[in-house]
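Appendix B, example 12.
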Amino acid sequence: MKLRKLIRHFVKIYGRRNNVFLQGFLLRIDFLSLAAKDLNTLIRKSKGIFDSRKFGIALSRIVARIFCIIQYFIRLPFLQNMRNKYGREVCTYCDEVTCICDEDHPQFRNVGHFIPGTLTWALKDWQVHLNSVYGKKNKQDSIEAHLNRLSDEIDELREIALEMPNTKLELYGLERKISTELADCLARLFAIANYYDIDVETHLLNRYGDGCPTCMKEYTDSRRKTCRCGQFEMKLLDWDKI
């Protein structure tokens, strides 16, 4: 499914619920952070025993919450900035087809040509592309390093939210900065998924393709894709019950 269409799918499922119960940017970042902590807990508790179903759920919940933040801003230019940062033939830090950056890589540069059609790519296309450019380098790092980088990207989003009342950026610059950080979050997620050879889009559609997995079994009419859940608790998952 095209990424643009996938985002709309999640807006249809959760847009109304999110607007009622997750009314602030910071609250949605906290919601994303909880899902990242759940993934961290799952990896720690797994002790090397790989459960693809649970890992798929954990990764899918993070993607859903990235989309939740995108939806908050209504017209956030996420796809354009995903393309600007990652839709090129080369690593946008070291200008190599296969990334050879060290830990202290240079600043992001607008190098390399855009790959045609990236604005219409599916989520899986992005995962495959990022793996082709960064996969070899990412495999050299520990899973803990990838988890820490995802957490760092979420913290950077939180810093933007906290600084917004006093920002000196004009509107388009602020939207571009938020979009780029969300693109970085998604890229970090793909690095974790590729570490375990998990197809994120497949698991995402298995979980959310028919609507909200929590309440969709309670009704069978044509509106089933819209979440009808009431207030929910902002808490960590108990993976022993999943």
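The mean pLDDT is 91. The helical segments are 3-21, 25-46, 52-72, 78-86, 123-139, 143-163, 171-195, 200-208.
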